[in-house]
Design brief:
This protein is of the alpha+beta class. It has one domain (about 5-170): Butyryl-CoA Dehydrogenase, subunit A, domain 3 (Up-down Bundle), CATH 1.20.140.150. The protein contains five helices and five strands; from the N terminus they run ααββββααβα. It has a five-stranded antiparallel beta sheet with strand order 4-3-2-1-5. α2 runs antiparallel to α3 (about 80-105), α2 (about 10-30) runs antiparallel to α5 and α4 (about 110-130) runs antiparallel to α5 (about 150-170).
């Protein structure tokens, strides 16, 4: 029989990494500071007028005066829209993983559940990395430099990977506890 508290104690490591990755992913995918745009950026509003954008994220941009503007009404190329969809997917999957570890600290789960969650963590790592398709979109045609959001996305991808790997190992029983009856007990 499995150790009933292995799930609660052994999930502290992956839950820390998943929580940190989730917070960084939200910051990276939701803020207006993913890329610092070059002076020849092609961000245009609906009338075709070029905006004075300084920083751009997946859902908003910041102008040179520091004011944030919504980008939901803007139409961009397929790579930008794909990066938006991937960023939203990362946040949604990350919320599910974070919620799982919220409950895993209190209730034992079978080892297969931890392996599934670990696989989802590695998938989330890849999806977070694919958000960088934004670099190949028309928005970065005039030149882009990574800003705070992009750095957070890189950190989040690493933490998703580490959390996913640790999750695959955390659902196993504690070493030496699998067969307590068979070692010196029942002559």
């Amino acid at each position: 029989m499995g150790n009933p508290i292995a799930s609660g104690l052994m999930c502290l490591g992956p839950s820390f990494f998943v929580s940190a990755a989730f917070i960084l992913s939200i910051f990276a995918n939701s803020r207006c500071n993913f890329y610092l745009l070059g002076p020849d950026n092609p961000v245009r509003d609906q009338t075709g007028r070029v905006t004075e954008a300084n920083l751009i994220g997946l859902w908003c941009y910041q102008d040179v005066r520091g004011v944030n503007w919504d980008l939901r009404g803007y139409t961009f190329d397929e790579r930008y829209e794909t990066a938006r969809a991937l960023g939203t997917s990362v946040n949604a999957i990350g919320f599910v993983l974070w919620l799982y570890y919220l409950f895993a600290g209190c209730k034992p789960f079978p080892p297969v559940a931890f392996k599934v969650v670990g696989f989802l963590g590695v998938i989330n790592c890849m999806l977070q990395g694919l958000v960088f398709l934004l670099n190949q979109s028309m928005v970065c045609a005039g030149g882009c430099e990574m800003s705070t959001g992009a750095n957070c996305a890189i950190s989040a991808a690493v933490l998703w990977f580490v959390g996913g790997l640790l999750s695959c190992a955390s659902g196993n029983d504690a070493p030496g506890r699998e067969d307590d009856e068979g070692e010196g007990g029942g002559d």
